[in-house]
């Protein structure tokens, strides 16, 4: 191919006379990369305007690609909310080149990959991962989404149900409800007010309106309308929907027709028209990652995506106008929530931050407002007993307009005092406007961003390309496509001051959220938002509050943060030459009190480390009261450290202190230079905790809300909880814990802390850029600070699972407590064996791998039972099995019947599966098992999971991959028939049915349970009939792993 200069930054690669690859342009300047990034990049622009970033990673065992279209739900037609999201669903269901509905997903999943997509306000993002050898095949199937989708009438009609089910899944989620309410209360006519998810009503309304008009043409003519029609072309050029060729006839069809009837046909016609108008190559950005050379990746991108048409549309449609006008600013919206919590949110309009990405003034200001250290707004509100959480961030709502959002989680007292909370908030904003900003603030942000980017580690391939494709839509300089979202380059005080000047009581909109507003007495004139039926009231902030909020700051406890002492001062990496990375940590010290495991980083070479501690005690959860006491201690320790640890978190050093049924877990992760300092502080705070009655009251209230809100969880989550409860030897319900919570006082906690720390066993993992001597110093700190005696071997609790009896088929039913939730759920579990069984475990993993996509396709795509459908392998101590989960408006008995009908059909699918397809699926699973670790945390998590499980089976994935090589299709079928198929006389099955109170009761023989099932009347009594599994024991003798026994 010939090359010529396109402009100063791009060169044009011309297609030659004998070439089958069209021409394209290549970006010439170097792209700024992280020091850790060993990949090669090439940015190209196809002749149709589509831009592609190609990433060559020679070590990649997974390839991935993503395509982002700069069109989202703000581009929906006004009369068809949700059309962009609906289009996203439909593109997965067949193209002209690959018309079989599930071909794309089946190909990708069978080759060890996964697929997904999302629709946001201004973008729709599609992405997948696949084993590296099958990238081209996946791209061939993927590219057709954007130049030749089928939009099959039957698929279109059925997928309406999936979108509707997705919306109904969200109806009781407060995050979704409040988000949509905020959109609905935009100024009149603003596109931000649109309903993005869509549902059956919104997508069929236009078609149903037409169906009431007189028919003037035949149904055949209506169906003949294609995306290449003159009407669609004219509509594309005008930006308006074209008129229907005819009013659809409603004399012989209905919404139940395979194609959706007249309304369904009109919806499909409008969908074709919209896709033709909006999906333009110039609006698309593509990212492809693989181990193929840059030239090969370029060839794939150019050849497969050049057929996408450029329709001459604005490549980055944007909205410059804020959704908050004079009527919306300076108001307060009172909102009723589903869950029991109290929260205050303030949103301020903000100009788009993309044009000022080098200085990021919105992010810089949000850093101060969201600070949790001394002098911060949160510190003041917490000390007053008004708040238990605060966050602030600059967010792009849609392309062209941003918001700065401040959210405060309130205590009951803070809710009653919300006016004082607001006044304090606005006084802090006044402080930000008027106080000098010392240079060290920006210098710290700049240094931390540079350090973060410098030592940026790899992530999963599909997440990475999805992020890249999305970032490419931002107006960053092309050389900053990798760094633009992270780095701070320029200090521009005027830009910062411009942002802070616009944060005042007259420009913000307040939302005050709670389940009940009775205690603040705002009246009973509630309105309802259309799509979620969220109840709300809107009032203008009264003049007295506005006046006081505009006064200068007179709260002496509010001031800007000082220098951050946790910024790492030693970024040296202790790199050594190695032959190959170790695959497991080594036990470097073992005593009756503790076991210390250690692995020096030998492959990622970043100045970071992880330290994990598990402090075990048999007292941790022996009764519900003990479990609550243990949890309260963990929460109080976290509460006490909140101010101190915030600077560490900002500086890239995070910690977590939590409770479990075994005791306490502490994890620290980040730059290692200051990690020992934070470790010392956390352990000191834990061991010397002084329980304050005021803080206990606040923490206890938060725990009460958690326990009481449990019953309002999604039906699928309730079902999975009850399944875990049924199969755990010792477990307590939130209701049992709630009964103990109110009677616990500070003396109870103080006494229990001394008791539980009197005798413990501690498991330690030190991993990363630390030496063996550093690890032993960690152990010494633990021993010195905790001052505990060791447990006896018999006292170290051995967790076990309950095992279903052979030949049992049990069902336990319960109601969904949320009377407004239309969904029910089924959690269907078949026990297979002991997780330690090296022969059985790989067979189960292969069965779960090959059944996952057919289960989803049959029950979700074809039968449209609900948005949530999954089939997965699950495991616990001494146990493993296959679990199917569905959430649906259908009765759980009907769902169970359909699952068993699927199993019956899958027997034939598996038996008749061609050997080539089976071996390809097996190879895909082996690729997954052998997938390389991406970063330091991923390796640490893998080690810690094995250590806390008690199995210490660090080589499990590699051993299973080897075993998979020798597993035949007949073995998988035999195990399926023995352990899963309903006809098996020895299988062990338990299903949990969660029934919606709003379920329609219909007489349906298909919804009757098979007579083989036994109904469980009392779950606790049922548990007593089960036997317990073997406890976890290490797969290798610890002496074989012990480096030195001290």
UniProtKB/TrEMBL annotation:
Residues 846-944 form the Coenzyme PQQ synthesis protein F-like C-terminal lobe domain. Residues 453-740 form the Peptidase M16 middle/third domain. GO terms for molecular function: metal ion binding; metalloendopeptidase activity. Residues 267-445 form the Peptidase M16 C-terminal domain. Residues 207-226, 236-265 are annotated as: Disordered. GO terms for cellular component: cytosol; mitochondrion. Pfam families: Peptidase_M16 (PF00675), Peptidase_M16_C (PF05193), Peptidase_M16_M (PF16187), PqqF-like_C_4 (PF22456). InterPro entries: Metalloenz_LuxS/M16 (IPR011249), Pept_M16_N (IPR011765), Pept_M16_Zn_BS (IPR001431), Peptidase_M16 (IPR050626), Peptidase_M16_C (IPR007863), Peptidase_M16_M (IPR032632), PqqF-like_C_4 (IPR054734). GO terms for biological process: peptide catabolic process; proteolysis involved in protein catabolic process. Keywords: Hydrolase, Metal-binding, Metalloprotease, Protease, Zinc. Its cofactor is Zn(2+). Signal peptide: none annotated. Belongs to the peptidase M16 family. PANTHER family: INSULIN-DEGRADING ENZYME-RELATED, NARDILYSIN. This is Insulin-degrading enzyme.
